[in-house]
Write a structure and sequence with these properties.
This protein is α+β, with helices and mostly antiparallel strands and 1184 residues long. The protein is built from 21 helices and 57 strands. The radius of gyration is 48 Å and the shape is elongated.
Length: 1184
Amino acid sequence: MNKGVSRKSRENKALRPEYFAVEERSILDKMLFSLAFAKDVNYYNSQNEKEGDWFSFFDKDAAFAVAKIINAPIKHFKAKSDALLTDPKQFEHQIPELLENAFAMTAVVVDWYNTLKQTTYTGILLGELEALKEDIKPNLSKIKDIALSQAYTANTAIAENTAFKMLASHDMFESLPAATDSTVGVSHTLLNAFDHIYGKMLFLQERAKEGLQIELEARSDHLPHIALLLTFFKLSQHLETDINTLTRKHLAHYYNTHLKLKNNGIVRGSALLELSLQKGIDQLQLTDGASILLSWASGQEHTFSTTGVNHINNARVTAIKSLFKSDKKTLLETVVEEDQISDILYQSDTLAHLQPDKTIDERPRSPLTFGSNKDYPSDIGFVISSPALVLEDGNQEIVVSITINSKEHTNSQFRERFNAYFKTSFDVYITDKRGWEKVVLTSTRFEQAILKFTIPLVQDRHRLIPFDSAIHEGSFTSQWPCIKILLNNYSQIHPYSHCQFMAVEDIKIEASVKGVNSSVLSNPSGNLDSSIPFMPFGPLPDLGSYLSITNGRVFQRNLKELCIHLHWSGLPQHVYRGFETYYDAYPNRVENKSFKALLTQDRTNIYSQEKTGKQEIALFEEKEGYLVSERKIKVDLNEFPLSNRMTLDETGSNTKCRPLYMALSKPAMGFGHQLFPELYAERALRASRYRKREIALPKNPYTPIIEKLTLDYKNVAKENLKRKQDSSNTDIEFIHIYPFGHITTFPGSLQMYTYLLPQIEHRGNLFLGLEKVTAGATINLGFDLIPATWVHTAIKKPTIVWQYLLYNEWKPFGEFLLQDSTGGLSVSGIIKLRLPEVVQYNNSRMPLGQFWIRASYTGSETVNSRVKNIFAQAISISGVLDTYDSNKKREGKVKTTLVNTVSQKQIATISEPYAFKISDTTKDTRDFYTHVSEQLRHKNRGVTNWDIERLVLDKFKEVDKLRVFGRCTTPNELIIGNHLQVVVIPKIASGVQSASANVKMPLEVLENIKRYVMKFVSPHLKISVSIALYERLKVRCRVRFIPPENSGYLRDVLNEDLVNYISPYLENAFIDKGFDQSISKMEVLNFVESRPYVDEVSHFSVLQLIEVNGTHRMIDTARPYGDKLPERLHPISPYVILSSVAQHHIEIIQDTPVAQDYKITGIGDAAIGTDFIMTDSAGKYMDS
């Protein structure tokens, strides 16, 4: 099966100049050849007599001794051991041979040590060998004990073994430590000991390569003949280089002379520039083809030409903001319908993130063009302001009732769901003296069709005051106190998408205050001090005596309920029937209910016969015949139609307020103060005349004293938002709070619907604030972007809509969008717009002082380009770079110069180039040969998958690997409706060796590949291009490193090696990774064990992390599936590539492990979001 092709594998090896080298031996090869050849050359002494060979002349040199260690064939010991272990059942019979093999391998270590000791070598290898001898002794002791145990004493061949006797002669056995008792079997002990010694020897051979380089370059005490020979080897390398160019020259001669083919690629460059005009110049037209010279500080120079006719003016981009509407799904699936999501809005000040004072390299990661859900959550909601909220001090409670008339929000199902899950979805703030103060104990309910907010205010904590821009944040203004209701961005279910289209019919505010004691009181005698007991009708109350109650915050047109609480002092409370008994000596019968007063706002009504405009009230209240000190008077406000609108002065007092009079009206004698002197004198005289008759003397008349007077009242304001209102006569202001501004919705223009929340329809929004713009002018906006990446061309790219803000509404540019070279803000380019004839700077929806334009899109897909710079007065330049040299770096500051044009003097500055791009279609020699070879086969026709794969790799240097799926070869693996599917793996820049590298591909490249392939196939074919998907592999193991003191560093090295080994987009020499590529657990284990710094590996397993349509699962090679442990890991789809996680789970072994079994991965071994995925109660995996 075709598994795709990589850039490296498509190359024809036979066309490589180095495929056949005339001389390809290294210095080490020549040294080893010299040692072997020296044994075959006889040595003749001065008497011309044969005396041995030349080997002894080289054997004692340190460099040649190290070379022998490097070339020592120790791998055959491992091969022999593996061959003997092919049948575990025969292990008992193979033990003698395994022992002989182990002793022979260990003897090599002794031989290496002796060889170096006999030379003048003084390097690090001697210390390494001595350490190695000591390190292998514990394992050698175990092997020796097995060899000499009772089970094998009869086998005398072991004791007679040459290697065994050599080890004994060098005291290797005499100094061995006693073998520790172990419950582990003979086979396990023998194999572990052998592997340990073998691993140490491999490591030493790697160190020997470093030692040889030191011997060749730094050592200066070689014998003369050795020094001459080594010098000859080094000098011959120069000759070898020239000799090995013969094949390259032959190929070049064949292609250029016989085939007459030339590598005719060209190098094109393009960039964007920002221009500014000289003072006094308002506009300039720059013609097409104007020459601009770019000069780098490093010495590179290139000439470019402008593209098209460019209109330059003084407009500038002074603000860049973004707004992103996410589609976060709730975890409570029963709360919302399947097709409904919980949107959260995120805002960003993009210009602040760009940090213009810093270079691109110094800035943090570029922000996404249209924002993302990693930005700051936006505060959106509404503000309600009303004179009814101007309240007196007391126990305050405010109820805001909003009538909703949209059918989908007034049904019982939505109402129940809202009351169950959205109680905490709103945050309520009031204008307090400390700023916007959050009211924590707010209650939110949906009753019938009314959304009700109950806001209790704590008297000692909350102080509702009129809006003050100095302390209350907000771009709006209001003369009244305000209530701000924002969506809670941290609630379990965000309410925006559920409440966005709630249409508001009317708003009602009910503000209740209890216990108001700050009213201004007076009577005909003057002002009264309400903080102490006072006489409301004066010391001698009579009919018409009155108490004046003045409170500008209470007596105004929004007052709908009023209760007066009178706390009387000195009442005859303990006398049955109260005043009836108290005044029994007075003429006429006086009862408790006889004392009455009139409430009116017009004092003339006290004596008039008119029945309107006044209310008669009883002054006292009795209970079961006894007077009570408290009297609650409910004022009938229908008799007092308050029409005065609240008007606050600088002190916060209502200057247009009429007092409320309480005038004594009954009984006729009042409280008897005028009658008492005459009555008392008359009764006293009669009593003196008629001593035998009992004549009652009248008691002193009761003088009314009020200990405390308080008011309870309720303000009510209600407005129908469907009526058009004049702002001077409205009792409610309704303001929508947008992320960057506000709109006063009511009073305002008459609309079909007034929604509860601001309407933000688009998913991604980019806002640009412009200054110094001219109505009707053309503006060029330059975008220096990191290209948007895409998964699949079959996914429809969102359409970008450009709009401008006029009268707080977004109006489309439509046909006035003159040019878009950005591909919908997916790549760098220029947007050319013709501005409208009306330009406004005062739209409150966005910050004032700027003309705002917007780019936005809708849909579920995301445009993920990132912003480097956005600027006005942009021009595009391009050109062919004839003198381009890829080996020369363009570094340092760039000087831009407009060459030979009349416009040169009118331009003040030209910026350094933005979005500088070089398109190099030239090919190096290898690519050129491969191109010709493939072209001879496919002849520029896409007949087979093979043809298309080579055509794409030849054209697009951004692609490293790809695979083509066709209707004929892989019909079941195509996306529905497609005839041809191209799946690519991007090429990673050299030097990027990490699993965290960005393996996505710009959308522009995917679309270019699609257009390019369509040139070579039938126009009736439906083609799509996508990048490969990845399933991550994670290795879990415990490792002992050598040397152990470097374990922390070596663990990082092993992690990086594993990443490079498994990742498909990183080149390595171990496996040829591609599509449909499975990997064995043993392959990875062997790779780890083969690392020279790895001593021992245990508890090894590999995890495969799989995600399909949001569902996650994990395959663990340590977990049985059925009756077997999985040995090979396969991708689940032809489009999927096995790749590596960035961080593997590697534990360091500090001591001898007690067990070597595989361990199944548990919670403690997993990382949230990568290999630890949470599930719900039904067992379904949830994305963390």
